[in-house]
Amino acid sequence: MFDSGTDPVLRGNLFPGRELKEHNATVGPFFRSFSVRVRAWGLAAAFGLVCLSSLAAVTTTPGKLGAASRSGNLADSRPASSSKSGPAAATSAQAPSSKASAPVEPGTRTRVFKLGEFGRPGPIEFRGIDHSIFLPLSVRLDESVVSARLRLRYTFSPALLPELSHLRVAVHEETLGTLVAEKNKLGTPQDAELELDPRHFTEYAKLRLQFIGHYTLDCEFPYHSSLWAQLSANSTLELVTRPLPLRDDLALLPAPFFDVRDASRLDLPFVFAAQPSAESVRAAGVLASWFGALAAWRGAHFPALLDDLPSSHAVVFATNNERPAGLNLPKVDLPTLAIMAHPRHPTAKLLLVLGRDPAQLLSAAQALALGQAALSGNSVQVRQLDLPPRRKLHDAPNIQSGGALVRLGDLQRQPGQLEVSGNLLDMVRVPLRLPADSVTWEARGLPLNLRYRYTPPTEEGTARLAVQVNDQLVQAFPLRVANSTLAGGERLVLPFLDTGGAVDRQDLTVPAFQLGANNQLQFRFEIVPANETRCRNLLMGSQAAIDPDSTVDLRFLEHFAVLPNLAMYANSGFPFTRYADLAETAVLLPDQPRAGDITTALTALGQFGAVTGTPGIRVLVLPASRADEAYDRELLVIASADVPGVLQGWQHSLPAVLAAQARSVSPLALFAETGAEWFGGALPRKRPGQGWAELRGAGPLGALMGFESPLQAGRSVVVMQATDEATLAQVGDVLLDPAKLARVQGDLVVVRGAQVEAYRVGNTYEVGSMAWWRWIWFQLHQRPLLLVALAGLFGLLIALPIYRSLRQRAQQRLRS
Questions:
Q1: CA-wise closest residue to 518 among 574, 579, 582, 451
Q2: Alpha carbon of residue 321 to chain centroid
Q3: For residue 500, is it left (φ>0), alpha (ψ between -120 and 50) or beta?
Q4: Which of 52, 92, 207, 495 has its CB surrounded by the most CB atoms within 10 Å?
Q5: For the segment 381-427, what is each residue's pLDDT rounded down to a tens digit?
Q6: How many CB atoms neighbour CB 661 within 10 A?
């Protein structure tokens, strides 16, 4: 430990001057002769070199202190000053020295991750005497970590005992640092910085943050409300990595183009010739959906480059006639997949998708997406490709279709996801994605047959299981001791082998109004030991699990939707993802697409793959001049305002028309203000010949529109349009930003920079079917005035016969 009087940097700066002054006073009398002066100057120079080397060694001490801090107090491992103390002061004192002692190497890259990006949104809460959380530390296959720095912002409970409470940072149970609770800073936010040894960053490594808290020296309740600490979501992990050269081997795919170890968004450039054909873009769309399915929740973006190469990994699409400039590619006779080093950046790789013509290019892409190519070596040829049968409606791997009982064990994404253990039990989370057109209106809900195991509580009434859906409570059940009996046959209690546990069964119904397209079933076990006055040692915590044989009943799920609804498209890719292989989807591009048009189309197809979990091998990409060929498909139209293409002939169907000259905006009602829909419902309205609104602007303006296809009734069209190519990219980015995504609804979304506004403009139409009596009630519910009129008419029809009968009886009494 160093204090202000023994600062190593301060001593390193003053020590050489003091020693040289004493040395000159000693040898001064000998400086009378020239030879003696030369000898003295030599000695002084040698001594100065020694002192300078000592100074350099001392100034690197803070870098060495990072290693020492991995086994001790983080606050004690940094040089302090007389005016500042504690972790915050230590951080500010160490930062300049760390930067000076660890220069960035050429070719490295620095990335900063917030802890909220590791799947834990919001602040991280610690509760109880001993509570740990784990964060992933995996590193990409093609990178190695040069240095890592953890910057934490944390708050300790003001009721903690400073000498016993701390936050421990460890990897593989090896302590890297300890944040001690300081008495004068309890209850206030603090900052600390910790250097992590790069050797700990291995495949699927986990960073452990362990909170140890005590509030009294006497017997204490291990779950007392004063035992807490909080870690800010703005805490960061800074990584400096260097690229690693990989061999040219297709067996590594999908790495390094997609690495499952990387939790960040996938940004993978696609390279084309100067003017790619629609068939070439179609082949790229197949691979974009495949990479999107692999990226899943991470998100994926595919920037298109025409006759240009990026400095990173990329996928190149080329035929014998369409070839990007700057690459010496061989001509092929069969669909070919190959991998090669980047000509200008040797550590980057290029995945080559080659074909003699666009048809072969598509075959190569489909073979890779389906895994039908035997991938090994640096090049393979696809001699035969057998496409699987067309997928059925609503049978995507990531979406649970109706008509069957679904086991919760089949919904878990990794083994052990249904089990929890410890002193404080985490929530069991089970994803449940339903088709976007699932009927939840006036439905009775989804029956859930739940079976669960748990460590019995010490006393009756001290534990419970809360069932939630999307953070909304469904029902809560008490957990009973192992030898309790049941009233009735509603539950079954059995001994759980020899562990003293119990197995319970409970039937409940998840309300339909709490369900959406992307749901999460949440099970929270609250098993707390009794608060006894005597001291107790908790040798092991509680254990609980949801039985994989628990089922959710989807047999009565119906499919019906009122369109256009851009919220369904933005969140689930509906209606394009009804068929997982995109067999009924067509993408329309300008006849001469630009890089921005292709980028937007590829990113949208990647999102479809993330929703379905499978590549869209049957997607169709056409130029706008051939739109009639896709009359029986759902259409996704990508266009800039100055290249409208097919939109010129559809102005009578568009909710809005974009132009890039003058500005003239017709009155529009915001989606949230369309209260007239409550009275008018979805009644057809007469549409002006040029659309509901004409939006013209000299500045950038983008729009996302939905309407019924002019080519065939019941089919849908979604248009992503902007006044220029750069703004079109902003429209696509809206679908990748969760904050903006929540504002996408209605049939017209206007994008002005960071501003997103939703409108309801045009007519609606219906797709799907449901029970006849529910359909009639749904139609009446959408037209309240008609419902009132029918109710009055029905009442009149009943009242007239009753009135006539009463009048007849009255006349009979008068005659008698």
A1: 574
A2: 39
A3: left
A4: 207
A5: 999 898 999 999 998 999 988 778 899 998 888 888 899 887 778 88
A6: 11
